[in-house]
Specification:
Membrane topology: Multi-pass membrane protein
Keywords: Cell membrane, Membrane, Sugar transport, Transmembrane, Transmembrane helix, Transport
Strand content: under 5%
Number of strands: 0
GO biological process, one term: transmembrane transport
CATH architecture of the largest domain: Orthogonal Bundle
Largest sheet: none
Protein name: Multiple sugar transport system permease protein
Helix content: over 70%
Distance between the termini: 96 Å
Pfam families: BPD_transp_1
Number of helices: 13
CATH superfamily of the largest domain: MetI-like
CATH topology of the largest domain: MetI-like fold
């Protein structure tokens, strides 16, 4: 009996020790797993920031920091006053300069012509998406001007639009008097803008075609079944469905018109006649490269940046409101 009584007293102790060890091991593994899970969740939260950090650093170093330096430099003087703070003197001088006021007026003209610059590639992309006869050929032809250098485009149209060029020869054959396309101050800016639209709408066309790839074709099928005309399909189906794409094209086209026309202006008109084709970017180049006035050029650059920022934000707001109304 003593032996029999001793045996049960030993087994619970051994079982307890074994259970305690198992429980401790299980608790240890659970704690390790929770720590790994916690570490994994922290890593997942930090991963996006780590991936974005190099691009953000490049933007800050190569974009934002030079921008801030340029803004600060615009409040200093040129020549003998180089590095000396002059307040808003550069900005006052800019708005007193008739050439700069002409450049700002031409910016207003670009804003007015912007819907045309966006509508042309939008309509052409619509016809290609609807597979009009020869759409594959048109798609390649429409994009071809986008690969040409602005200098080459400007030289080609200088020949075409010359006073004794082919265009006036054709007009003369039908009894129309020759027109000085690039020498008339009232026409020259329209010619340069038209050439720029022709040379660059291929990129916007590609963006529109990418937007059409996300369009729900069942909406078009439903519109056809209901007997909707092409203008009705455009206004009630395509434009609302491509609202984000249209916003993107509007903003990028506006930026391109304000900052990418220097080559055409330089080759086709050099700012003339009578300064009628000046744009802020051309004015900036003149002040920096020929007049050696970097502080004044920095002030003009700051104004151009503010114009692009304000116009871009207004475009986005107006397009969002139009999309909600549709």
């Amino acid at each position: 009996m003593p032996i029999g009584n001793a045996q049960p007293s030993v087994r619970p102790v051994q079982a307890g020790r074994g259970g305690g060890a198992a429980a401790g091991s299980s608790a240890h593994r659970g704690g390790a797993r929770s720590r790994r899970a916690g570490g994994g969740s922290r890593a997942e939260r930090l991963a996006p920031y780590v991936l974005v950090a190099p691009a953000a650093l490049i933007i800050v170093v190569l974009r934002l920091y030079p921008l801030l330096l340029g803004v600060n430099f615009s409040f200093t003087g040129d020549g003998e006053q180089n590095g000396v703070a002059v307040g808003f003197d550069n900005y006052r001088e800019l708005f007193e300069d008739s050439l700069f006021r002409t450049a700002l007026g031409n910016v207003g003209l670009l804003v007015l012509l912007l819907p045309v610059a966006v509508a042309i590639p939008g309509l052409l992309a619509t016809f290609i998406y609807l597979r009009v006869p020869g759409h594959r050929f048109y798609r390649s032809v429409y994009f071809f001007p986008a690969v040409l250098s602005p200098v080459i485009v400007g030289a080609i149209f200088n020949l075409l639009l010359a006073y004794d060029g082919p265009l006036n020869a054709v007009l003369g054959s039908v009894g129309v008097a020759p027109v000085d396309w690039l020498g008339d101050p009232d026409l020259a800016m329209f010619m340069v803008v038209g050439v720029h639209i022709w040379a660059t709408f291929g990129m916007a066309l590609v963006v529109f075609l990418a937007g059409f790839a996300t369009l729900d074709s069942s909406l078009l099928d439903a519109a056809r079944v209901d007997g909707a005309s092409l203008p009705q399909v455009l206004w009630h189906v395509i434009i609302p469905s491509l609202a984000r794409t249209i916003q993107f094209v509007f903003v990028t086209t506006m930026i391109g018109m304000l900052t990418s026309m220097f080559g055409l202006l330089f080759v086709m008109t050099s700012g003339g006649p009578e300064g009628s084709t000046y744009l802020p970017e051309y004015y900036i180049w003149i002040q920096q490269g020929q007049m050696n006035r970097p502080a004044l050029a920095s002030a003009a650059s700051t104004i151009l940046f503010v114009i692009m920022l304000v116009v871009g934000m207004l475009q986005i707001k107006l397009l969002e409101r139009a999309g909600r109304d549709n």
